[in-house]
Amino acid sequence: MRKSSWILVAVISAVGCARASSAPTKPASSVAPGVVVASPRDAGDAGDALEVDRGGLDALTRREVCMMPVAARAAARPGVAPYARASGTCGTDYFCDVVTEPPAGADACFVATGNIARAEAASRRAVRAPSAASAPWDKRTPPRFMDRVDSHLHLDEAETALLNENGFVVLDRLGYASYAVAFHDVFQQQLPVYVGVDAIFNAVFQGSQTLLGQLEMTKLGPKLVKMIDRLRATLAASRGRYDAETADDLDLYLSVAHALLHPSKEGRPRDPATAMTAAAIVQHARTASGLETISVMGRERMIDFSQFVPRGHYAESSFGESFGGKDEILTLHDYFPAMMWLSRFELNLVSRSCRSSEPGVAPDPSETPREARDALALADLVARAGLLAELKVFEDAYATFAGRREDVSVPDLLALAAKAKIGLRDPDAPSKLKDAIGEGFRRTARIHFMPEGADELPVILTLFGPRIAPDTAPLTRLVHDAVPGRTKLGGADVAYVLGHDRAKTYLAGDLAKHPSLAAALDQSRADVAAATRGARDVYGAWLGAALHLADRPDGVAPSFMKTDAFADMRMSSALAVYAQIRHTFVLLAGQGYDAYGCEIPDGWVEPAVAVYDGLLAWARAARAAVPAQTAYLRRVEDILGMLRSIAITELAGAPLSEPQRRWLGMVAEYTPVGGYGDSGEPPKYTGWYFDLFPDREIGAQRGVDLVADYFTLTNPGEVRYLGVEKAALGVFVVDTGGETRAMVGPIAKTYETFAPTERRLDDEAARKIDARNKRAGWLGFMAPQRPDPAIAARLFKCHDGARVVVRTGSAASEVSVSLLDHHGDALGPAVTAAVGREPKVFAFTLPDAVRDSRRGVEGLQLQMGRWSHVVGVSAYRNDVGDDPLSPAPESWFDVDLGGPRAAP
């Protein structure tokens, strides 16, 4: 049998750093697999970029490299061997995607669901140890495990300085597309694990949007098709019941909804003039043309068509299942604009200080009797079509997910009309309806365009009703005209409303400029806290949990949690959660408008007990919303309970019990198992972190990056956004519960931005935003990405081991090269030599077994001074097993320097 050959290629040139991608796919690159790309921040320091062409290292063959003179040589340390993965079992189910039991002879630390369950049970039985003596880190003594952490993460001077200053540092250069991949790399490299709240909230986010998306796809979407078709058919059979003007208005209303839901079908109104108006509205909605003044139903109104851009999970291909009839395929991308129309286009019932969506700068309190008649007729049409039960399904689902509405619902209007004896043909029907409404249906949130001075919001009706989230009205009080002249809103405002006093640091200029802002901020904060207290809907419970991110732990906490830098990180976490909530509920919630492994040596959980209590409330609310997912949500409650229990142990100053440490170590394990190419078995995804997602590895590996619009500023014509760019590894020094020690775990990198109202940003558009337009003054705790030198390296197999050929783009510099094993540890000493533009060869003597196995050399480290980069060392890459007959690819590694590590 022939032996497999291997080549690793690492090319670093000035062609741009990769960003975190949105899905667990190979990092985007315009170069071949195995090519590693970065851009120098300062080309003058980095030297000329190296081009990947036939005149460069890529032109060298293995034979040529193996015969070249050797500049430096090292031998592997004694006893090195290829990594041998033990395979767990899942009974007789050969197509399972999770390991249920460890192999024979494995210890209790092997990542299997059985071992996880046993660790949980043992944790509940364990007696808490007494508080362990500890002292604040003196910033001079290296924490326990720091030598191993630094040998894998290679902190430079700036990163080390931040670690010493704050007690923690987050490394922007070590970015990941998903927390699952980050946790697995920590597990694989046998680093002490830090479990922060960002990763847990990400699971809540992915779980929430998956549960909601599945409900909309399987239940609500088909019902929407049925409702629109039946309403149109009932209207067509009702000529004479409604006057011609009202019938044409209803025809327009339903035809627009039909056209938005069915892009490929015709469904024009009967009246030609009405058909022209409907076509214009549909065109504006499909092009998402921003704020437009439209003449409809007898008056002009301002409609924000940018809201019709499908965003959140409605724009994601991963929610690409379809619904619809036999002759069409409909997705949530079609569902979104139709539902946006039916929940945002309002019929004005009582104008109060100004009728709804009035264009211009002056309020117009005149009534709109035509729309009142339209509303009465629409309610009658729904009842006569026998659709009140279907409407209740939508109401129950969206109320359970996102809470209350403030508009008049169809059942409300039917009850008002019946009580006041209002007939459809009654000429006084609009005035009788106004009297019947009286002082009822007071609204607090301005969720559509309104001119300045419209203090009493109009009474309106929509078919499905936007949900008035706890944060919607409070944010409107922070801008003009509630705070005169303030036309901007930002992440710091949101953070303060969510409870973070630290946000005032970033609002100092505005607080000085606008004297009424301080009181408005305090009132908005109090209102959000009151509205979320005891909330039983998913949105309210989720937001309520986020508010607890501002709490100070009541107990023994590490020194780093008392720094301004940690306050900034907690504020960033809150903004990430807020963006996730808004991303999930972009359709349901109305938006505010202004006036115009066990080898893991240790573990630590961020001790946010109140946050875990809040997330337990979220899980209970989600169970009520989707009873079919009770088993999954019960498992989530078990995990949250474990995290809460560990946090309580930490706050007592006690060391974790052995079962608690064992449980933390089983966070995430990925086992390729050869893939479908040999054994036929699928890969295995095991660990408690995967259990937090309803679709397990699919949701866990879904990209963390997102953008969410949360406020529309009509005066400057801007939409405000909060976003999450990626997860990045951080190093945290824990100086409680015993000996001071270092931990490693992923943290969210957040940002804020704005864009014109003409076109709303979705996640894909946000990925193309220039980094200079992504602002985040609160990220001082994060060490920025460091410059990457121009350097190229290729690794070949030779008869006595391996050769790495290296060249740089500048004058000779000292370069060190190390070969790494499965866990990221060096197979032997580093080899060092001066390298310039002429290629130099580094030789490594390896045992035949290591040389010939695909699991012998799993990574390469290059180092110049304190600059260091590692290629490989992740199970999340192309993996075709150890079959020596398998064709050898050019490289076993597919990683972009400075970018995320993601599953193929």
Structure explained in plain terms:
This protein has 904 residues and is α+β, with helices and mostly antiparallel strands. It has a domain at 7-81 and 790-872. The chain contains 26 helices and 23 strands. Strands 3, 9, 13, 14, 15 and 16 form a six-stranded mixed sheet that branches. Strands 1-17-18-21-2 form a five-stranded mixed sheet. A hairpin with a 2-residue loop joins strand 17 and strand 18. The protein is elongated and about 95 Å long. Residues 1-55, 674-680 and 875-904 have low confidence and may be disordered.
Q: How do you describe this structure in short?
A:
By secondary structure, the protein is of the alpha+beta class.
- Global mean pLDDT: 84
> How would you sum up the major sheet?
6 strands, mixed
**Given the C-alpha coordinates, what overall shape results?**
elongated
Low-pLDDT stretches: 1-55, 674-680, 875-904
Name the beta content range: 15-25%
The total strand number stands at 23
Structural class: alpha+beta
Q: Helicity level, as a percent range?
A: 25-40%
Put simply, the count of helices is 26
Euclidean distance between termini CA atoms: 29 Å
Radius of gyration: 30 Å
